[in-house]
Amino acid sequence: MCLGVPGKIIEIYDAGGLRMGKVDFGGVTSETCLAALPEAKVGDYTIVHAGFALNLLSEEEAQATLDTLRELALFEEGMDNDITLSS
Amino acid sequence: MKFVDEFRDSDLVKAGLSEIHRLVTRKWTIMEICGGQTHAILQYGLDELLPPEVELVHGPGCPVCVTSLELIDKALAIAALPNVIFTSYGDMLRVPGSQQDLFAIRAAGGQVRVVYSPLDAVRIAQQNPDKEVVFFAIGFETTAPANVVSVLQAKALGLKNFSVLVSQVCVPPAMHAILGSPNNRVQGFLAAGHVCTVMGYWEYPPIAQKYGVPIIVTGFEPLDLVQGLLMTVCQLEKGQVEVQNAYPRAVSFEGNQAAQAMIQRVYEPCDRNWRGIGPIPMSGWGLREEFADFNAERRFQVGHIQTQESTICIAGQILQGLKKPLQCPVFGALCTPEKPLGATMVSSEGACAAYYRYARNPLFPLSLSEGRVA
Questions:
Q1: Which one, out of A62, B32, B248, B255, has a CA that is 20 to 30 A from the CA of A48?
Q2: Structural domain tally of chain B?
Q3: Per-10-residue mean pLDDT for chain B, 374 residues long?
Q4: What CATH number does the domain located at A1-56 have?
Q5: What is the pTM of this model?
Q6: Among all residues of chain A, which has the CA nearest to that of B126?
Q7: What ipTM describes this predicted complex?
Q8: What are the angstrom distances between the C-alpha of B343 and each of B62, B137, B338?
Q9: Do A69 and B223 touch (CB under 8 A)?
Q10: Which residue range is the domain that position B339 belongs to?
Q11: For chain B, how are helix, strand and coil distributed in percent, rounded to 5?
């Protein structure tokens, strides 16, 4: 149901009226249907399931998620340091 | 690999887990609805790294597992017909029907082929004009765009020998069924990330409000799962009941509207029988009348199907989060991935298969300090 894999669109073409793309999954490229992504461009990242691109991946949002956890990691580290200092 | 490696950063995962340990003050029961999430949680050992107060229960988000026995038996009957090439996603092959599975049909000479994408099935139909090609269109909302595009493409190509056997199911009705059950213990939900890349999460606020349960859209990498769990525990501890998005890089509130439009074009809501759970009204999609020519159930009159479930298998209770695989008396013994009694031991998204694969075996107990079996 949910085994989607991120990949980078490296080529877009039409095959029998269907919008298709070549997507690179970190070395392995695969033919992927882009019918649900009329706005996709070469260089965009997308999440693919069963040979079908479901949505574009946002770099900005990915960064925001990582930043939230990095701040948490710093906070945790700070707390550990406080404990070490006071003991 | 971009968008993957960063979300497997073990330091960040540990920071998230520490925060969960710090925040939790009492017992909470959280359900992850998606089988892919169940597998990822077990694969990365996250269930064992959470504080003991947080109990994870596994939901029915395994489309292979919930496809009705009647439909499986119909698929077997169609696949056994002499002029049919029956195509399906790989893990349907070993799902037990009343008497046998697709693998057995193939062994007996039936033409059963695994396809990665439904468009491959359309290609097979083009290449074999004298054969009837049927595609087993199972799945939650995640596979719906691909499944409907196969029908649209077959229609555009004027194919007369292609049809689909549809078993499309939807997540929100399943959530209603679980949360509305008198036996329900679920207090927080991890919503299925890739279902939501297609559908968005606009369907969830009414569910959260109705049952007083926070719902967090969650991805599949270890960091995504920890982030989803952290946000859930945070809300539970504060008594909040909101829908939040812990997978914003792939999911927006409205979802992929082009995909939703394609789905609406070909499918309409219908009742579905969920294996192990029972009928849930308006819980699935079926082909619109306009596409009746592509409906395998209409094309092949396979007659009255008398189904017979295994009397020992408790897959239904597992799918509803009422029991865990290790509570099954035949887990790992009479029931294994090679000889499954139920679909949950077969599917790459089934809870029993996940427990078996990631060594949660009562005969060989493992703790983290002893290391993991690969």
A1: B32
A2: 2
A3: 87 93 96 91 92 93 90 94 94 87 92 95 97 96 96 97 97 94 93 96 97 97 96 97 97 97 98 91 97 95 78 88 89 89 85 84 50 40
A4: 2.30.30.140
A5: 0.90
A6: A16
A7: 0.88
A8: 9, 17, 12
A9: yes
A10: 315-358
A11: 45, 20, 35
